[in-house]
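Notebook entry, cofactor series.
This is the third protein in the set we're modelling with a bound small molecule. For this one the ligand is thiamine diphosphate. I'm keeping the input format identical across the series so the outputs can be compared line by line later. Sequence and SMILES below, as received.
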Amino acid sequence: MAVELRMPALSPTMEEGKLARWLVKEGDAVKSGDILAEIETDKATMEFEAIDEGTIGRIVVPEGSEGVKVGTVIATIEGEGEDPAPKAPPAAAPPQPPAATPAPRSEKQEGRNVATITLREALRDAMAEEMRRDDRVFVIGEEVAEYQGAYKVTQGLLEEFGPRRVIDTPITEYGFAGIGTGAAMGGLRPIVEFMTFNFAMQAIDHIINSAAKTNYMSGGQMRCPIVFRGPNGAAARVGAQHSQNYAPWYASVPGLVVIAPYDAADAKGLLKSAIRSDDPVVFLENELLYGHSFELAEDDQTVPIGKARVLREGRDVTIVAYSITVGMALEAAGQLAEEGIEAEVLDLRTLRPLDRAAVLASLRKTNRLIVAEEGWPACSIASEIVAICMEDGFDDLDAPVLRVCNEDVPMPYAANLEKAALVNAARIQAAARKVCGR
Amino acid sequence: MARSARTSEISKAKAAASARPAPRAEEGQDAIQLRSLQLAHEAESRYRASDEELLHFYEQMVLIRRFEEKAGQLYGLGLIGGFCHLYIGQEAVAVGVQSALDPARDSVITGYRDHGHMLAYGIDPKVIMAELTGRAAGISRGKGGSMHMFSVEHKFYGGHGIVGAQVSLGTGLAFAHKYRGDGGACVAYFGDGAANQGQVYESFNMASLWQLPIVYVVENNGYAMGTAVRRGSAETHFYRRGTAFRIPGLPVNGMDVLEVRRATDIAIAYVRAGNGPVLLEFNTYRYRGHSMSDPAKYRTREEVQEMREKHDPIDHARDELLKRGVAEDAIKAIDKKLRSVVTEAADFAENSPEPDLCELGTDVLVESY
Ligand SMILES: Cc1ncc(C[n+]2csc(CCOP(=O)(O)OP(=O)(O)O)c2C)c(N)n1
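Returned structure with ligand:
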C-alpha cells in the first residue's frame, strides 16, 4: 500500500521550500532514518528522513523545484510493513504571518540603488558594515558563529571576521550579558545576541542594573556602549515561555535606548545607529519578519534614533504601531480606505526615547487615535501612548484612545487559542471604525 | 629582639609546614568519599534484571521511539507546531532512571525534551500526543504545548522551556520533600548545555549545604543545539562538576538501560539515607536534530550512523533478550502492539477537538478577586 510523502514543515514558520536534492531514486529500498531528500527553507537546508520502511514508488516533485508548499505530495513509498499505511491528513495551514505591504517611504529614495532584501539580511549587513568600520565592534551570543545564528541572522559573519570577533558562548545568558557589559565599560562595542529575548530574562539584571545605570551613577564618566539584540514577541506556536513582548519592560527604564523596527531599511539603519551610539541599546527584532523581503537602498545610511515615521498619510484616524503590528496596521489601513476611512499609520520605531511630538502631531491632524501592539495591554507601550494623548493632546481628541493588543493571558499553544490571543488587522480595523463612530 | 622575632617567624612557618599534611589527609578522605559511589558502581555496573524486567524496559524504550517517530511525522504534516524536541536515542536514560524510583514518593522534573520522559513515567500516550497537536484532550488542555507538559498525578513537574530552570525548581521540590519529611527524592534532568547555566551551581551549593534529597541527572547527548560539548564546556566531565560543592558524581553509559538503572539505584540509596545530592552523568546521544528545525550541520552523518548502528540502546536490549533465550515472537508481539498504541494515540490526537475558545481566559489565576 502506497504512503504519500508530503513536503514537510521543517520549522515553526515554514510555508514553502525548495526541494533541493533527492538522495534516493524510484525503486530504492529505504528504511526508517534514511535521508531521502534535502530541502531548503529560507533559514537552512534540512535533511528529510524516511519514517516508514518500503520502496520509493514515484518521485512526484523533481529536485530543484522551488516554492513547494508544505503538504504537497512529493513522492510515494510502497510499504510492505505489517501496518496499514497511515492515512495522510491534509496538512494544517501553517500560521500566516501578517502580509508585509511594502511601505511607501517618506524619506527620499531618488538617486539610490534599491534592492530587495530580507529583514534577516538587512540586520546582518548592518552588523557587518559596522564591524568593517570599527574594530571595537564584536558579536557574542549562543550559536552566533559556527551555527550561523539560531535564526541565521549572523550568517557569514564568522567567515568574514573570524572567531576573535564572532564569538559563540555556552548557554549562559547572565554570564555573557555581564561579560558584554563589562567589555563595553572597558572600551569595546559589543553586540550581544540573545537567541530570543525570552532568554534575556536570565540576564535582565545586567541590562538594567549594570548597563542602564552606569553612566548616571558615575556622573557621566563610565559609558556602556552596548547593543542587546534578538527576536522579541510571539513567534508561531512556541507557547507561553517563548512568546512575549518585552518592549514595555525595557522601555520603562531610564538609561536605556529601546528600538523595535518594522522593515528592512529601518532595521538596518537603526541597528547601525545603535552600534554607533554611546548608550546601551535594547534592539528588539521579530522572528516572523526575518524572512520578509523589503526594498532597501544599497548604501550605508543610518536612521536616527528617537524618530517615528509616518508610513501612510490619512486624515480620519491615526494608527500608532511598532514592529510586527506596523504590517497589520498598513493592511488595516488599506481595508479601511475601501470603507472610506483614511487612516494614518505611524511607526514608532524607537520606543525609548519615544517620539511624543510625532504622536501628538498626527493626533492633531486626525483627532482620533488607536494603538496596535503585539503584547499584553496592561502597562504597555499602548498605555504609554494613551497617557501622552491625555496629558498633551486632550484638546485634540474627538474620541477615546483605544488599545488594540493581545489578550491579557499567557500565550496558549493550541492553534485556535493562539490565533484568538493575538492582535490582527481585523481587530485594528474594528477599533478604527469604533473611534470613527462607524 | 629582632633576632628572636625572626626565630618565631621561622618556627611559625615550620609549624605551618608541618601542619600542611594534615589537611591533605583530610582532602584524601574527602576524595574517597566523593568517589565512594563510583567505587560502588565500578564493583557492579549493571542492574541484574529478570527477563520480565528487561522485556519491560525494552517495551518502554520502543514505545518512546515509535511515539517520537510519529511525532516527527505529524510535525512534518503541520499537525504539531512550534518546537518539537525528540528523545530518539536517549530512551535508556529516562526508562532506566524511572524504574529505580518510587512513584508514590519521588518527584521528577525536566526540560523541553519531555515527551519521551513522560512515557517512561507511565503517562498515557494519547494525552501527550493530543497536547502536541494542541487539542482539548491534551494533558495541558492544549495550552502548554510540547515543551510545557505536567502531571501532578505522576509527580512529574514539567516540561520547562527555559534552559536550566528545572535545576533550581527541582532543588525546590527536593526542599519540599525534606521539609515535609515525606521520604521522597527529586530527580532533576538537564542537558550538557544547561549544565553551564549559573543557577545550576547556585542550586548545587544550597542542595549540598542543606543536604537536600535530589539526584541531578545530566543527559550528556554530546550537543547543545549546534554546540558540541567541548566547544561549550571547560570541564566536559560533567559528573565532576559537583565536586566543588562536595556532591559525589558518577559517569555512566547512558546507552545501556541496565547500567543506568544500577547507577540510579546507588544514587537513590545515598540520597534517601539523608546524605544530600548526587550528580549522575549519562553519556548518551540524540539521533535527530535539536528540534525539528535543526539542519544539524555540526556533525557528520557518519557519526550519527555509527551511534545508531553500534550503540543503540534498543538494539542492545533486544540482543540481550535474544541471548537470554527470550522468544523472538514475544519481542515481535511487543513491537506490533506498540505500533498500534502509537497509531491510536496519533489518531486520537488528530481527531479530538481543539480547545473551546473560552479556555483562552481560564487558568490564568486560581482565585477570583
Ligand atoms: C535560557 C535559555 N537559553 C536558550 C534557550 C534556547 N535553547 C533551547 S534548548 C537549547 C540547547 C540546550 O542543550 P542541552 O542543555 O544540552 O539539552 P539537549 O537539548 O541536548 O537535550 C537552547 C540553547 C532556552 N530555551 N533557554
